[in-house]
Specification:
Three copies of one chain form a homotrimer. Chain A is 46% helix and 15% strand. Chain A is of the alpha+beta class. A four-stranded mixed sheet of chain A has the order 1-4-3-2, with helices on both faces. In chain A, a hairpin with a 2-residue loop joins strand 3 (67-70) and strand 4. In chain A, helix 3 (44-55) runs antiparallel to helix 4. Chain A is globular. In chain A, 47% of the residues are buried. Chains in contact: A-B, A-C, B-C. Chains B and C meet through strand 2, helix 3 and helix 4 of B and helix 3 of C.
């Protein structure tokens, strides 16, 4: 959590991607930790990831990841498995450019 | 926010639709303002809107809108663009009648 | 709510399914009651249920149900109608085995 805050506030990262810690075991607390550092949730990203996992034949409901903004830094939780990350990234990439533009107040894409 | 409360509590509106303020810039705080005036969230409406945006070739993950109930008033955030509002409304309309019946405790439709 | 807590903490149930109380009338407060007893939400389950209701020609946006973990007990809200429960269960079953394994820290399935 301290690492997320440092990357967002000190290094002013535009985008932070995390992997893993998103399933159901007692140690899977990435979404809760992420929620503590973001100001505003962006539920469409985890939703899109679950759609892509489902379409790719992977378990989708188990993915508890979230996404949100800390100021102008976008933080997105990804699944832990390489296959899950791959499916998720393919689904996210078409929307990431629009997201990063929107964060800067430049709305060249239509929602 | 005061306007939402007045429409819901004083004018007892059955349905309030807002547009815009739902993306990622620092000024996009409609979902947070809406969450402050509702008692119970209705996550299926924003989910359905994102499905319709995606199906319509628009950016879907950027739409952060929410929906919820303040007493018996249903408040739904819509996107800001005319195309987004159009796609969203087409998706919502088939469920709106059932929603307004359900709010009154008249469950003639099946969930 | 006391019943949920007793089943989870005293009887150490692995899985609790509730039905009904998930729509929009003033008495529909199952999601809010559930949220009070869970530690961590699992939004993928209600999302999957809404996808299945939509695919089955039922109202989907009206389903406000949630799901989450209380320790190692998984609690999932189901719709109130027999048709809704049937559609929801068919969609959930393929992911339930993976979910129950994941809760025990045994990740044999890929998200």
């Amino acid at each position: 959590m301290a690492a997320l805050i440092e990357m967002a506030d000190y290094h002013q990262a535009h985008l932070i991607l995390t992997t893993g810690g998103t399933k159901l075991s007692l140690r899977d607390i990435t979404p809760e930790a992420t929620r503590q550092v973001i100001d505003r949730e962006v539920p469409g990203f985890p939703e899109l990831i679950r759609v892509s996992l489902r379409a790719g034949g992977l378990m989708s409901a188990l993915f508890r990841g979230t996404a949100g903004l800390r100021g102008q830094t976008l933080i997105i939780n990804l699944p832990g498995s390489p296959q899950g990350v791959s499916k998720a990234m393919l689904a996210l990439i078409p929307e990431l450019e629009a997201a990063l533009f929107s964060i800067q107040g430049r709305d060249t894409f239509t929602e």
